Amino acid sequence: MGKIKLKPKAIKGVISIKALVKHPMETGLRKKKGKLVPANHIVHMTVSHNGNKIVDADIGSAVSKNPYFKFKVPGAKGDTIALKYEDNNGKTGSANAESK
Amino acid sequence: MKRRLFLKSAIAGSAVATVVGAGLLTPSMVFANTASFKSKSAKLSNTAAGAGAGSFKLKVPKIAENGAVVPITVDASKMSDVSSISVLVKNNDTQLAASFNLEGAQGFVSTRVKMSKTSPVTALVTAAGATTAVSKDVKVTIGGCGG
User: Fold this and answer.
1) Residue B23 above 50 pLDDT?
2) Closest by Cβ to B30, choosing from A28, A30, A41
3) b/e map B28-37, b = 16+ CB within 10 Å
4) Taking 50 as the threshold, does the pLDDT of residue B30 lie above it?
């Protein structure tokens, strides 16, 4: 559902992965016109580098709307980075990018 | 104060029960964080209380004007064998904001979190089996959790 921007960049043997996921990240605590807005947030996210999982994250509702993440992994230009997430409604999203 | 809290939670509880009873929402949709996430949060906050001071860097703003977006950077890239990084916000309902298990990646995580009010932010880094913590206060002028 959401759009993901994934920008890995290799500098001196280290890839910095910048990821921006478009997601409302509703906590389920906010009210709109007196009614609670149902929770809708990412619960689980994985990032892999050339097919090997490097980050496995449990995300809570306290992470901001349209969450931004940055990770670093040793690697070189041309390596592939993949990101996958799952939200509490079971919806998933993924993105692939080649490191620059 | 306790009575006030009790009343509030009783009202909130019954409202949720009605909605669930009507079959409009499943419980997991109503509650913010899953039970497993909450128990993890409680466990990690206990760990944070007993953890020694870490030698990594935690970068947070001193004053966050908008509690909905508080940038947090945990830089433990000088430590080796970093297996997990967690971020806790003490005064939030569920203290744990996010927990990252790292396998092969450097000990570096940057993200943005929501804060309901002024609170200490704690980063937990587990490296080579030992967990260390660094805590810093962040002043929030406008809350970001429902408010």
Assistant:
1) no
2) A28
3) bbbbbbbeeb
4) no
User: What pTM was estimated for this model as a whole?
Assistant: 0.67
Q: Give the distance, in angstroms, between the CA of residue B142 and the centroid of all CA atoms in the same chain.
A: 18
B105 touches chain A (CB under 8 A): yes
Residue A88 touches chain B, beta carbons under 8 Å: yes
- Look at the domain B33-142 and name its fold: Immunoglobulin-like (2.60.40)
**With a cut of 0.90, is the ipTM above it?**
no
* Domain ranges (residues) in chain B: 1-31, 33-142
A46 touches chain B (CB under 8 A): no
Cα–Cα distance for residue pair B13/B88, rounded to 1 Å: 26
B75-119 residue pLDDT tens: 877 777 778 888 888 777 777 778 888 887 777 888 888 777 777
Residue A68, pLDDT > 80, answer yes
Domains contained in chain A, CATH given = 4-98 (2.60.40.10)
Residue A56 has its nearest CB partner, among B40, B96, B101, at B101
Tokens of B10: 């009783």
DSSP string, A29-44: --EETTEEPPPB-EEE
